Q: What sequence folds into this?
């Protein structure tokens, strides 16, 4: 087959690759600078409560659900469902915010 | 007697009758054998198998004088005449005396007859008589025979066979209580009492990995939710169920359910 500019067009055959990671060097060599600015979403949870399915289906507006924490307990800061820190609930302007009180120190 | 095609296990009533008779046989035999150190073994044998086996029923047919044949004869006999027949064969008479064999057969048949009379809504005790001579077993083992045999091995040499006639098989007998099946309930109600977790999510914030890596006590993470906004009530932490407003109830954290989100 010939292309429009007259150059020959040939089919490319891909070579077989071998995954030999044992002898390869680390690409980033522990340097996390490249991911430094990657953004991660954190979720802040006030607590949980447990309900029977029938009670959930009967749930009405204005009903009050008591949670598994006291008002003095810190709230949880989660990433992908895992608690990574705890803090107290604060107002940041007209928004909610959380001031960190516990964080994994390692 | 009306002969009908053999319908083994054809109906619930037949199965119940067979179960009842098997149980009675096992119980009576077990009781009787308790003193003789013999292990009872009761099994249901379709007559077609007996015919293939040949030996036993050929013996019954060809044996000029079976040891004993028992029928019962009572005030109710006209309704049940010929329904029940106990037939003890002794291949080695020395191991079981005729007297004991007679007594056993009589006992079993009386018990079965009484149970069946009761199950059929009749009252009164059944009396059994020992019949001498060869019982009317001409068509037993033939194809299409209406009878069912329950065989009870009293010892390796001695076998008690109880024949169930079609009318007896068809007699209405209530099944055992443990066979009553629980009624099926609507699937929608089956999980009514299942427990689910609701998680109250105040809001979300966004941090870079660098900020997360240096996160320390005292840092403040601003969240996307305004103080005047509803917070999210999520099923198992994921599915949003509805909104709510955060508060407290007697010192406990609480949320008041608001509009559906």
A:
């Amino acid at each position: 087959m010939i292309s429009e500019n007259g150059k020959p067009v040939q089919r490319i055959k891909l070579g077989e690759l071998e995954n030999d990671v044992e002898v390869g060097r680390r690409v980033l060599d522990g340097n996390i600078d490249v991911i430094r600015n990657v953004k991660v979403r954190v979720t802040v949870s006030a607590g949980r409560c447990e309900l029977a399915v029938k009670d959930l289906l009967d749930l009405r507006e204005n009903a009050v659900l008591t949670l598994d924490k006291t008002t003095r307990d810190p709230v949880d800061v989660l990433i992908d469902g895992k608690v990574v820190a705890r803090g107290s609930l604060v107002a940041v302007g007209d928004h909610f915010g959380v001031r960190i009180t516990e964080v994994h120190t390692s | 007697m009306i002969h009908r095609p053999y319908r083994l296990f054809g109906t619930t009533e037949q199965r119940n009758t067979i179960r009842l008779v098997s149980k009675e046989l096992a119980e009576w035999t077990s009781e009787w054998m308790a003193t003789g150190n013999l292990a009872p073994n009761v099994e249901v044998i379709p007559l077609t198998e007996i015919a293939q086996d040949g030996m036993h029923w050929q013996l019954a047919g060809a044996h000029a004088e079976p040891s004993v044949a028992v029928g019962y004869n009572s005030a109710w006999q006209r309704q049940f005449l010929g329904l029940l027949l106990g037939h003890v064969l002794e291949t080695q008479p020395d191991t079981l005396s005729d007297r004991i064999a007679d007594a056993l057969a009589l006992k079993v048949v009386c018990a079965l007859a009484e149970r069946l009379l009761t199950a059929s809504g009749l009252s009164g005790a059944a009396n059994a008589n020992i019949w001498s001579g060869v019982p009317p077993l001409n068509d037993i083992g033939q194809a299409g025979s209406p009878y069912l045999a329950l065989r009870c091995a009293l010892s390796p040499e001695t076998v008690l066979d109880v024949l169930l006639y079609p009318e007896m098989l068809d007699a209405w007998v209530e099944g055992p209580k443990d066979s009553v099946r629980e009624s099926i309930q609507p699937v929608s109600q089956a999980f009514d009492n299942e427990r689910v977790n609701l998680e109250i999510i105040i809001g979300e914030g966004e941090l870079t990995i660098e900020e997360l890596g240096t996160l320390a006590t005292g840092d403040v993470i601003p969240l996307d939710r305004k103080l005047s906004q509803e917070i999210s009530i999520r099923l198992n932490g994921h599915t949003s169920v509805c909104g709510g407003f955060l508060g407290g109830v007697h010192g406990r954290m609480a949320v008041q359910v608001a509009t559906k989100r």
